[in-house]
Structures are given as C-alpha cells and as structure tokens.
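Morning run. Coffee first, then this:
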Amino acid sequence: MKKSRVLMSAATLAATCIAGASLTGFAALDGEEVNAVDAVAAIQGVVPESLSGLAAVSSDSDTAAQVSLPGGTIDVPVDPADGLGLGGSLRIGLPFAQQASDATDSALPGVVAFDNNNGSTTVPLIKADGTLQINTVIENAQAPKRYDYPIEVPDGASVVQTPDGTVAIVTADGSPLRVFGDAWAKDANGEPVPTHYEVHGNTLTQVIDFTEHTAFPVVADPSTSAYSYNCVLTNGSSYFLKPGTLLRTCQGSRLQMYYNGRVAYTYYLTLNGLPGNPARASLDCIVAIAGTGAGLVTTTSGLGVWATAASIYGLKSCIA
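And here it is:
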C-alpha cells in the first residue's frame, strides 16, 4: 500500500503542477521538470523529514541555490559538473555529472533536481543549520547501484574512513572539516535497503544493493553537517561523532566542537568533579555510580542538562 501512495503522490503533484501551468497560461512542464517534481514527491513520501528545516536560498544565472553562512557559502550549481560548494575550496562532485541535465526547479521553492538520465535523480538539500543532504532518488532496478562523490579538498586535506565506518574530510593534522552521517537507503515502503560507503582516494562512493524485487522508488543519501564533534577519551584517543548522534554518548574527558576544521569550543566533561570515562572496575567507576549526587554531566559552559551520570556515564562506562 505504501508503495502505491508514494507513486500516487508523485503523479498527483506532477499533474497538479501541469494543470496549474495550463490554467495560468504558462507552458506545460517538460520531461525534466516532471522528473524533478516526481523526485521531490518521492522524498516526501519515503523520508518526509528530509524536507523539513530547509534554508531560505537565493540564486543567479550560474547558481541554482545558495546560502551564506559565517563559515562560507553553501551552493548548488546550475551545471552539475561544477559540484556543490561548502565554502572556501571544499567542493563535492555530483554523481554522473557529465551526463546529468542542468538543475531543474521542483514544485518546492528553492529545491532543484538533476536528472542523471539513467533512472536516478540527484536532489541536494541545504538545511538552515548548515547541513547538506544529497538525496538520490532511484526509479527502477535498471539504475546504477554505485554513486560517486569526488571531493575537492584544500591542500593537505583528505577523505578518510575510520574503522567504525565513519567517513570524514580531515585536515593534515586530522581535524575534521566535515563528517558524514551513516549511509542509508529506504524503499518506497520506508523499509531499509542494504547500503554502505566506500572511500577511494578523495572519492566517496555510496553503494546501494537494491534488486528487481525492491519497492521503487528508493531514496538514499550522504549528508554532512556544518559542525563536527570529536570525543576525546581519557587515554588520549578520540573518535568523530556522526551527524545526528546524541552528544551525551561521548563518554570521554572532553568533547570538541569543530567548525571548518578549527575547534570552535571544548566541553570538559566531569562526574562529581572527576574526569569522564572512568576506568571500569576502578574506584572512580564506583564513585561515578554511587557517589553523592551522581547527578548531571557538567561542562565549562554550564550545560548541566545533558544527561544523568548514573544512567549514561556510570552504567555504560563501568559495566558496558
């Protein structure tokens, strides 16, 4: 049932736009415009949350959508070969850019689509919080399963994939410029489709393992936030938090917030005056759970409402 609702919503939206154009005297939508409407309607039907919190964008003859932020301008080009700009010298290339059509307006203000002319469509979304979400809408089983995003990085920077699968763009000293969220894909029924990331040089590839039995359309994306977080443990090791991860999951001594590769703020985490991430089966661990007022995680900025020490730090650090 859900599959038919998704497809119906796309057809209805496209038909409404075409009918509206006819009634108002404008020319009917061409094939690329209908495809753009269908692609955005598929996103609305499968992952409607992706279309929330969109930024107000501007445009010009070369730029289909752009947003100016303190760290630089995020832009979506008219020509797919120009790639997506993330401020400064950081750009993300689009899949099948050499064969894709120019950006086409959808029925949603400020949202454009690139018809890849192979059964897939790319729909970049710029969120008000600086997140860039690059949606791929896959129409049928004949579409490609691999989607390459060649990334143009500043001098000394590179694209890395950590042992836990996190993909990040990092500077020469390992500081994060951008961290990508988990690879995901959903079919027309909202069910997950197997997918994963691969990194080859400075190219991020999303592989989507649909079959002829998958309910189409499929929606997938890589997304990356303007802010990146690094959880530093008491032993000196650290790891990136993927976008969307609750900050309280950092069981470390401090949490570093990065913006464009620079530390914007450091949150020092404590438990009853002791460093976070206490060693298991240690006195610190016992104090963390049973100590007087094993209450709130505190930081230098006074964010004492993050989480309770007993439920988050105590139990997980000591018995996990």
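Confidence is low (pLDDT under 50) at residues 1-29, 278-320. Good start to the day.
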